Structures are given as C-alpha cells and as structure tokens.
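[step 3/7] inverse_fold.run input=structure_tokens len=212
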C-alpha cells in the first residue's frame, strides 16, 4: 500500500485580540470551519521522546509524530518561527519511535506499540479551533482556545522540501506584519502552557534539555 510522504510544517504562533477575525477577513482570509477535538500526547516513563523534541499525539483516533526538521533544529531557538517534520503514517511513526528509542518494535499498530513500549499519556486537552485559509499566500491560520483557559493563534505553511522553507518563512513573517503581529519573541504554544501549569517537573526537564 502506498504511503504519503512526510511533510514539513513551518509555523509561527501569536497572541490575538478579539477583533482578529475581522482583521483576517479584511486581509482576504476565508473561514474553513470550526472543530472541537481532543489531543492526547504520549511518552516513555523517562520522557525520552519529548526530551528529544519528538511529540507523539493521538487526535480523535489519528496518530501523528512531530519531530525536528533536522538534528540541529529544535524548539529551543528564540526565532518565533518553528519548523517540524510531521509523520502521519503509522508504519513511519513506529519506525521513527523505534529508531529514537534504540529498539525494533514488533507492533504493527499504534495501540499495540503504546502497550509494547509502555508509553503513557502525559497530556490531554480539548481545543476549540476556528480555521482560516489565505488561498493566494498558501497559508493556514488557526485560532485555538484550549479547555484549560489558554488561547493562541498559529500561521502555518506546509511544504514538501527543505528548499521551500525560506520562501515559507518569508510569507509567514510578511503576513504576520499585515496581521499586526510584530514581536520577535517566540509565543508559547498550548503544550508549553499546559506543561507549565499541570506538569511543572516535566516542563523543567524540557527547559534543562533546551527543548523549550
């Protein structure tokens, strides 16, 4: 069975005001829809995945693994734009997790892999998302409100190759200026905020590992 290639996510998070949707529409953005979903994240007991900036997530039954764009790329940069590779095919996820953990999983499905490796859920929350698209720029904008009282926006462009990343960065930063997002400091995302609030020891370990 054919598998789809991994993609690269180039994204920038931002805080937004109550009039953000009016601004988006004035810039030509189109509302794609609104979605309510639960994300549950998994790691080993000793946190070997997240300490290497690998984020294994189950969203409403669909699995995804986000990992650094390159061995030298991680969440520790102060650059407001981040780059991650995204794996969505279970075989690719299992292979990547096995390689990172130094083992050869026998499992053929993600639920079996979780049991085999003793992975445990360390975060789970519900997000109310309103999604916009900027067709001309090829950008997606998500406005998220999490059930633990945190809201954040994200501008994203998905590319297929590393050669496309510089142009994606330029488009995202230009759009953020139009949106009124001019700061250069990285905005914390939902996961960073969740860990700080509910799993401070995990958060501190990630800080010490320069992941956050």
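[step 3/7] decode complete -> sequence:
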């Amino acid at each position: 069975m054919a598998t789809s290639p991994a993609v690269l996510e180039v994204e920038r998070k931002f805080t937004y005001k109550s009039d953000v949707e009016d601004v988006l529409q004035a810039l030509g953005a189109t509302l794609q829809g609104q979605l309510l979903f639960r994300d549950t994240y998994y790691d080993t007991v000793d946190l070997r995945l997240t300490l290497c900036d690998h984020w294994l997530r189950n969203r409403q039954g669909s699995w995804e693994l986000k990992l650094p764009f390159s061995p030298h790329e991680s969440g520790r940069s102060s650059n407001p734009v981040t780059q991650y590779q995204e794996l969505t095919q279970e075989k690719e996820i299992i292979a990547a997790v096995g390689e990172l953990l130094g083992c050869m999983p026998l499992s053929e499905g993600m639920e079996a892999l979780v049991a085999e490796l003793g992975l445990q859920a360390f975060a789970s929350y519900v997000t109310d998302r309103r999604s916009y698209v900027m067709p001309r720029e090829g950008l997606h904008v998500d406005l998220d409100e999490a059930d633990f009282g945190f809201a954040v926006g994200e501008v994203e462009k998905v590319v297929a190759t590393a050669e496309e990343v510089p142009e994606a960065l330029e488009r995202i930063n230009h759009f953020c200026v139009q949106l009124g997002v001019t700061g250069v400091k990285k905005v914390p995302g939902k996961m960073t905020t969740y860990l700080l609030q509910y799993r401070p020891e995990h958060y501190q370990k990630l800080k010490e590992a320069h992941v956050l």
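[step 4/7] annotate
The chain has one domain: 7-208.
The helical segments are 20-26, 90-101, 110-117, 165-179, 190-198, 200-208.
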